[in-house]
Structure formats: structure tokens, C-alpha cells
């Protein structure tokens, strides 16, 4: 992949096309961004009218969790705290943001929105901007391969709203809706590994490597798993280029080494602290956080659309058997796009098309995980990802989330096919035939259009929290805000489990709480997905029939100063409140939708 089909020298006597003026280029790029924004507004139209009153994604726990982290980052920076760790969840031990969806880059970027409109609005804005930035990144990356701006712009639109992005938008996964790193990998494949600079000129290895390192560091601040998957994709690209053109690869070796060295230096400088928190920081998990054997994509999903795809004739019954739920069924490519992909390889046969196709196929195989699963059934056929399972960090990545890299590969071949078909220089009848084929190629991308089914949830909170949660007692012994025991306690339950985290964020982090929804570990439990349940919460679950002494000891060990009960969010509020009063040993009082029970370990409140 040393040159693109558009970088060939003009024929003798052909005028060199004039380069558009800078103003015209800027106007064109702004128009592309506006078009992407319009598409995203259409996708998320259900939240546009009330950004503070509705939250994107049908899984309320995820939107609440992202809102919590988007609020935590500016709060921590404004109070001189470490934004990558926090004891505001799972107090007093805390959580490790590098093992969770901390998105510090978005936390900083959207801090003005959070400060003026709140974390729920910041989460919605992040969701709306995610496909826009992803689409524009793909457009800019494809400009290194594709000449006509309209083709790269349209290709960016197809990628930015691809089935993977739409699936995770439906769930509310901000970190995956910002699918910007696959375009970075495409850009690096052309500029760093193939050595093609702007307008077909020579690349600049030191600068390009530094830019790659900067992009990787920013991705660390979005989602570390995507960095691991991007590293796998870059290795695949390097292997394919080396095997397909060994002499060119050997000549490129010094420049590639310079770029890799520059990238490594930038990453080492910018990611030293995040890497330490990830590898040695507090509250990190001490074991595998997921079963790598079940994290691959369903092979049938390559041709069977999920319920989130608009065009899905007669496939509903098959989609119901796909591995995972619709929010993780983002591997769809479809028969139409696969036919275009295959036809481009057979008929165009340019080096960029063939190279992109080979890389895409290899990444597609890797995305299936350790063995082939078809319609939810594991066939037992081993796949190459099994070799990567034991690698540090990479082995914990979800192979199925290579889907956006695969989608971008398909879109790249699709764009190169369009460019080939729209090139002039043929007779009238051939031109008509090509026009028909162009229409068919464009129509293939329509099969990725999503259905209008982006869900929303109610992000409301009792007035007690929106008023700042006053009256929870003095600061804790360490000088920080008081630690409270929430009922209900935050959990990993998809619907409602994250509500206490959102309430805490809306209260301006004026208190810490013992529970949480996170990935972590403790001295007694290697891997946690929520705060450990103690004697007090077991008593809540038992309807107030727990061991009072054990419950008091449990809360005392966590340095709790108050119990907060939200009656509207529990099944039997009278029983829960009676239990809280018994354990707390003090008088409860109601405060704008919540009950506050001071906790007195020695049953001597007011003494």
C-alpha cells in the first residue's frame, strides 16, 4: 500500500487540477461537520428537547455511571484530588478509574457543560458528539487514500453511524460511541507503515509517530481496552504489509522505527501516571475481569442484523439467537456490503484495496474470539484469538469490540471502489453502466441505516440531592465529606442500579457512599463489580430481620455517619426505614424525598 489510486501522475497534456483555496476547503470541512451533527441530532432526537430531563440509552445504570465520572473529573481537579481514583464510591476503599469508564478526556473537554448544566447534560452532549467526532476522524483518515472529498465525507458518515456505534449508543456507552481510534489506526497504516505523506508525498516519521503517540494517549483517556485492540490492529497491518511487500517493508524499517520511537516517548510522558494507576494503583482487580472465551462476536451477526438496523427482512427470529444482547450486536456488515467488498477485491485489484481487504478479513476473524459461535451456539472451532488470551491487558479485551476496526476496513474498500467507479475516461454506454453500479454501491451502505429506536431514561433525583444533600453530618475523620450508607445501594443492576451514583453527582459530590458500580478488587475479593454487601444491606434485603450488632459493626468499619433511605426507590420502605432506625440508633427525619438516619455506633446519639 505505497500509493493510492489517486496519486498516479497525470497523463501528458492533462492539466493538473487546481488545488482549492484554503477558504473553500475550510468551508467544505465545516459543511461536513454540520452534516454529521444533523445526522446525530436525528439519531438522538428524543433527548434534544430536554437534555437535562432525559438520558440517552435504555440502560439507566450506564448513563448514570458516565454522568458520575463526567462530573467527578472536574470536581476532582477543582478540589486538588486525583481524577483517576476516587473514594466517593466504595468508601473508604475507593475505585480505580483506569479499570472503569472514567473517560477523563471527556471529563475535561466537557467540564464547562458540566459546570453550567450538570452531569446529565454533559453525558447527553458526549453521546451526541461521539458519532460526529468518529465520522469526522474517519473522513480525515480516508483523505490519505481517497481523492474526492465527497467520497471520504460520505464514508465517514457510514462509519460514524455504523451498526457498532449505533448499538452502543442504544445502551449509552459513551466510551464506545467515541469510536475515534480505528481511524487513527487507518491513518497510521498509511502514514507510518506505508510511508505516504500528504498529497502522495513522503511522510515525516518523527512527526507522524508523535501524532500517533498523542492519539494513543488521548484514547487511554477514553477507554484503555480500545488501545489494546488498536495495538492488535496495528500489528496485523504491519504483518500484512511486510508479507505482501517485503522489500518495501525493509526499506521502510528505519522510518517506521523512528515513528514508533516517537510514539513511545509521547505515550510514556503523557501516560506515565495513568499507567501506574492501571498497573499498580489502588482498588484494581486482582484477577481476570471477564471470561475471554465468551467475548467474541457471533459469526452470524456478520450477515444477520440486530433489531437496531432498519432493513432486516425476515431476520428477526435469527437475531433473537445471536450471542449477547442488541447493545453488543455491533458486528453487522450485511450481504450487500460484503458483496461490494468482494467485488472490489476481484475487479479493482489495486494494492490499497487488496491490502485493506486482507487486513479487514484478519481482524474480522480475530473479532470472533477464541472459537466460532453461530446464532449463540459455540461450534468449538478454535480461532487465533485463543493465542492472545494470556497476554497482559490484551487478553482482557473483548474481541468482539474489534468490530469498528472491521467496519472501517469495509468502508475503506467501499470508498476505494466508489472512487474507481467514478473516475472518468470511458464511453457513453460504459458511463451509463458505471452509473448504475455506483448507485448499487451507494445503496449497499443504506443497509447500515439504523432504526429509529434510541431509548431514553428518566435521570431525575429526589429534591434532597439536587439541593446538595444537606444535613448529613460533619466531615469524616479524614477531613473529607461524610460517608453515607445509601438505600437503595448502587449496584450493577442495569435498570436503576446506577441511580444512587447519579443522585450523588447531582448533589455535587457533597458526600461519599459505601456502595458503587465499578470493576475493582479488595483484599478479600479479587474481582468486584459493585461494593461488597455487608450485614446492614443483608438486613435490608431480609426485610429488617438482620443481625443488629453485626450491621452496626459493618457501618462503623466503613466510617458511616448517616443512613440515607429513598422510599420511592425501595420495595418496602416502612420495613427498610424501621431497620435503618434500629441500626442507626438515632431519630430519623424526612428531607425532600429522602429519610436521613444519623448513625451512632455506640447507640449514644446526642450524647
Written overview of the protein:
It is a single chain. This protein has 607 residues and is of the alpha+beta class. The protein has 2 domains: 26-56 and 118-446, no CATH class; 463-598, no CATH class. It is 51% helix and 8% strand. The chain contains 25 helices and 13 strands. It has helices spanning 22-43, 45-48, 60-78, 104-109, 111-117, 119-142, 149-160, 163-171, 174-177, 181-193, 205-220, 224-244, 246-270, 272-280, 316-319, 335-348, 351-367, 385-388, 403-421, 428-446, 463-466, 499-506, 535-541, 548-557, 573-584; strands at residues 55-56, 85-86, 95-96, 371-374, 377-382, 456-457, 483-487, 512-513, 517-520, 528-530, 560-565, 589-591, 594-598. The strands form 5 sheets. The protein has a 5-stranded mixed sheet with strand order 8-7-11-13-12, with helices on one face. A two-stranded antiparallel ribbon has the order 1-6. A hairpin with a 2-residue loop joins strand 12 (589-591) and strand 13. The longest helix has 25 residues, at 246-270. The radius of gyration is 27 Å and the shape is elongated. Residues 1-16 have low confidence and may be disordered.
Question: Which key terms come to mind for this protein?
Answer:
single chain, 607 residues, alpha+beta, 2 domains, 5-stranded mixed beta sheet, two-stranded antiparallel sheet, 25 helices, disordered N terminus
